[in-house]
Amino acid sequence: MADVALRDVVKRFDEVEAVRNISLNIPDSEFVVLVGPSGCGKSTTLRMIAGLEEVTEGEILIGGNVVNDVPPKDRDIAMVFQNYALYPHMTVFENMSFGLRLRRTPKAEIRARVEQAAKILDITELLDRRPKQLSGGQRQRVAMGRAIVRNPKVFLFDEPLSNLDAKLRVQMRTEIKRVHQKVKTTTVYVTHDQVEAMTLADRVVVMNGGRIEQIGRPHDLYHRPKTHFVAGFIGSPAMNFLPARLQPNGEALMLRLSPELAFPVPPAHAARYRPSVGKDLIFGLRPEHITEPRGEERDPRYEFSMTVDVIEPMGMETMVFFTVHGKEVCARVEPTAAKPPGQPIRLYANLNHMHLIDPATESVL
Ligand SMILES: Nc1ncnc2c1ncn2[C@@H]1O[C@H](COP(=O)(O)OP(=O)(O)O)[C@@H](O)[C@H]1O
Ligand SMILES: [Mg+2]
Question: What is the fold, at CATH topology level, of the domain defined by 240-364?
Answer without folding.
Answer: OB fold (Dihydrolipoamide Acetyltransferase, E2P) (2.40.50)
